[in-house]
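Recall from the previous lesson that a structure prediction takes nothing but the amino acid sequence as input. Here we apply that procedure to RNA helicase from Aegilops tauschii subsp. strangulata. The sequence below is the only information supplied.
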Amino acid sequence: NGRDGLDSLSLPKADFRGLIPFEKSFYVECPAVQAMSDTEVAQYRQLRDITVEGREVPKPIRFFHEANFPDYCMQAIAKSGFVEPTPIQAQGWPMALKGRDVIGIAETGSGKTLSYILPGLVHVGAQPRLEQGDGPIVLILAPTRELAVQIQAEATKFGSYSRTRSTCIYGGAPKGPQIRDLRRGVEIVIATPGRLIDMLEAGHTNLRRVTYLVLDEADRMLDMGFEPQIRKILAQIRPDRQTLYWSATWPREVETLARQFLQNPYKGNDRNS
Ligand code: ADP
Ligand code: MG
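The prediction returns the following tokens.
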């Protein structure tokens, strides 16, 4: 349940002085994508029902290889048997790989998880290794245990090629194994907000190394009243992180809230959302 953690100890104010700069921009546009004219880009977006908003939105990719993912991502994609990127992936991968904040909206079942997992793996691969006592580099917040578990399954499947470790932190389950994973060190943490706050307050992990932050089903999280917890968690994460929201719907109230946590984001939509 999302409420635990809120009324207990409060977290110390994070100190962001003297932060070491980090890399978050990895996108190298493939020559075939570079060669697409504005008309071709517009036609492809129309064909796949993609709309975009924001400054300097990159062109979509049409094939997996056009994303210029490292081999460990391509191996995982090859193994999956997928034929082509879904629309949110075609537009969302270049957006996310550029290191900017992203709002990605696409209907349920459209492959949003991989839209942020693969760029997340690239992000992890470019950071210094975790040291003793370090928390995660990628933090994924999700509204429910079920969703968190599904996300971790995808993170495990696609992360195994780069030996990227992940764990799932959610309420209603024993804390022991979760604490063990956190203390051992994991690059990716997928968490529901309440249990994560418990873990932070107890000092089992920290968010000082988080530079890639995902809010999945952001609309549901805000609908479910997680805003105070989200604020508390985000206050622990360095402000120059990359933040990505993924959602099936995007009501105006959610937009207003989300914008407070984003810097100069761009937005990609599919038709049905
Ligand atoms: P969403 O979060 O948008 O509801 P998911 O990320 O859960 O959707 O993906 C739904 C299903 O589609 C998953 O089983 C996932 O493995 C699969 N999937 C992801 N990308 C592709 C793709 N490019 N082609 C075919 N299936 C895909
Ligand atoms: Mg999803």
